[in-house]
């Protein structure tokens, strides 16, 4: 019998691996709906949907290994990072998904609320929060929406050698800012930004990508703490914020 591996588990959802099958348990069926539809629309390799029986979605494993992990050096080649950039460009050039993305006004309000929480509760020094809120401002501008993955952490991109073999976890997909995907992929791995941009193949505003690093980190810390993760681990979100000083 195959061993059951707990990939991730918290109060919102859990993912288990049994052999070559991933079982995603999620009480939010709208999130699963988005994931299934997005995988069907995306022009990049994605897992195969095997079956669905709410609240469980079964998908196939994709070959290869993750591009890396936040807080750890990536062993993937520069060519693999460039291939990830090329795959993102292909996604961004695809027709928009039919559901809307994040609202700029709501995003700004959420950011201000999280900054206030971080300072009021003594989670981060006020000057660190203030500086990163200033940096984040560059991302808070109108953008032309594209088909975005929405949570393109490097653990969600799988490679075999220099080739992309699959992109997983599409529950946050929607219409969004192209630079947000590029920023999410390179969060904590600034040394690979040039490779990703080279693969992406078009000029991008690096200041906006850096702004998204600050913005995403500020927004994530409370959620991570409340769900049992450590954003202050070496190389993770708090270190990303400190690097902006």
TrEMBL record:
Q: Where are the transmembrane segments?
A: none
On whether Kinase is a keyword of this UniProt record, the answer is: yes
Domain of life here?
Answer: Bacteria
Gene Ontology molecular function terms on file:
kinase activity
Start and end of every Aminoglycoside phosphotransferase domain? 40-201
Its organism's taxonomic lineage begins at:
Bacteria, Bacillati, Actinomycetota, Actinomycetes, Streptosporangiales
State whether keyword Ribosomal protein applies: no
InterPro entries documented for this protein: AGP_Transferase, Aminoglycoside_PTrfase, Kinase-like_dom_sf
How is this protein named in the record? Answer: Aminoglycoside phosphotransferase (APT) family kinase protein
Question: What keywords are annotated for this sequence in UniProt?
Answer: Kinase, Transferase
């Amino acid at each position: 019998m195959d061993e059951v591996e707990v990939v991730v588990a918290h109060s919102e959802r859990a993912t288990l691996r049994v052999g070559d099958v991933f079982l995603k348990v999620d009480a939010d069926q709208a999130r699963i709906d988005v994931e299934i539809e997005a995988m069907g629309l995306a022009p990049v390799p994605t897992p195969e949907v095997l079956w669905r029986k709410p609240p469980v979605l079964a998908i196939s494993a994709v070959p290869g290994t993750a591009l890396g992990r936040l807080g750890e050096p990536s062993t993937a080649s520069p060519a693999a990072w460039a291939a990830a950039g090329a795959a993102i460009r292909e996604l961004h050039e695809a027709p928009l998904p039919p559901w809307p993305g994040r609202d700029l006004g709501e995003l700004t309000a959420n950011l201000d609320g999280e900054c206030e929480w971080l300072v009021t509760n003594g989670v981060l020094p006020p000057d660190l929060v203030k500086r990163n809120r200033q940096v984040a401002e560059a991302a808070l501008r109108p953008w032309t929406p594209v088909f975005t993955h929405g949570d393109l952490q490097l653990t969600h991109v799988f490679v075999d050698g220099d080739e992309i073999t699959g992109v997983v976890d599409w529950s946050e997909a929607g219409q969004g800012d192209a630079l947000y995907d590029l920023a999410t992929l390179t969060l904590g791995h600034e040394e690979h930004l040039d490779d990703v941009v080279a693969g992406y193949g078009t000029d991008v505003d690096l200041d906006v990508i850096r702004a998204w690093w600050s913005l995403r980190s500020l927004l994530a810390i409370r959620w991570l703490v409340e769900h049992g993760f450590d954003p202050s681990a070496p190389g993770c979100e708090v270190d990303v914020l400190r690097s902006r000083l």
